[in-house]
Request: fold
Amino acid sequence: MTRSTIRGLLLATSVLAMAGAAQAEDVTLTVESWRNDDLSIWQEKIIPAFEAKNPGIKVVFSPSAPTEYNAALNAKLDAGSAGDLITCRPFDASLELYNKGHLTSLNDLPGMENFSDVARSAWTTDDGATTFCVPMASVIHGFIYNKDIFDELGLAPPATEDEFFALLDKIKADGNYIPMAMGTKDLWEAATMGYQNIGPTYWKGEEGRKALIAGTQKLTDEGWVEPFRVLAKWKDYLGDGFEAQTYPDSQNLFSLGRAAIFPAGSWEIGLFNTQAQFNMGAFPPPVKTAGDTCYISDHNDIGIGLNAKSANADAAKTFLSFVASPEFADIYANSLPGFFSLNSTAVKMEDPLAQEFVSWREKCQPTIRSTYQILSRGTPNLENETWTESANVINGIDTPEEAAKKLQDGLDSWYKPAE
Reply:
């Protein structure tokens, strides 16, 4: 064989190798999300763990601002430019995406057997036939408190409603700290950390929520008005100028040690761990009377689905099966303390504050936010109206009874319970 022949063979071999490399070029998946605060966790923990086992697939996490996500995502989906993987909000927003053909069925996805019907409920069709997002995490509501302030003032976490207000009175009388850090300017804060936090205690969690959907209860019934009455009493404990206080303002007041209690979702844990220079504890929503059943909002918060127009569907399904795995559950729940795994495989929480929140599952009845399933599909939107009325009640603009009537009238204008 001549040198020129050998050179020719080598050249041909290298050309073939280059062609093969081009064919085997990594698939790149893009993840759409509203969670822009956990970018580093995806980049440093989740994606490397996946890519190490799937060397032919690259993943790019590409979040939007939370307030812009729905509009931005819908525009991208309509234009055919959305990412391969769509982070799913719970219930109706994602169901609408599925009904429009933007998300695909994941019934046959390996790993979906790791989730109960309750875990899948936020991303399953009304008839229960099709699940279209892999459940990732839920958030739990309650109250985070500054242990150092409690120790200084000789306070203990309250168990009942009376103990709760007695506690607030003591903090207020001391005069050195704002009893509770919450504002009403952003509206949703008043509803999510206020009404939906304490409300299940009064409407008895799933019992009341399902009765509202069935039409056997109304928002003007006592179980739905009473949490507004309790919320109206919060006004005296929120500090000066709470009406102009934004959600980030509230976070800052607490993390700087100026407020004793933060009506919270468990998603605050990660931020407060990095910003607060004091010890923290948490307590669940107080019961009305000692011995009553405890209720918590353990709300399905986040899932992830497949863009029906993804050009990389097989690779995307490989990633979704990873998200459905116990390995992902452990990484996610412990990297983001306060976002609790929905995987049926139990995850041991390393963060003590997160463990405190999740321990309430053992003693309290779980429910989800009352407005999220079915009842916010029409106009006026019950979820958004509840934001407004929760703020109005705290601000003293509407009485609890007026707020409840406005919400029920709005619901009656478009929602007719199934016969």
Residues 6-24 have pLDDT under 50 and may be disordered.
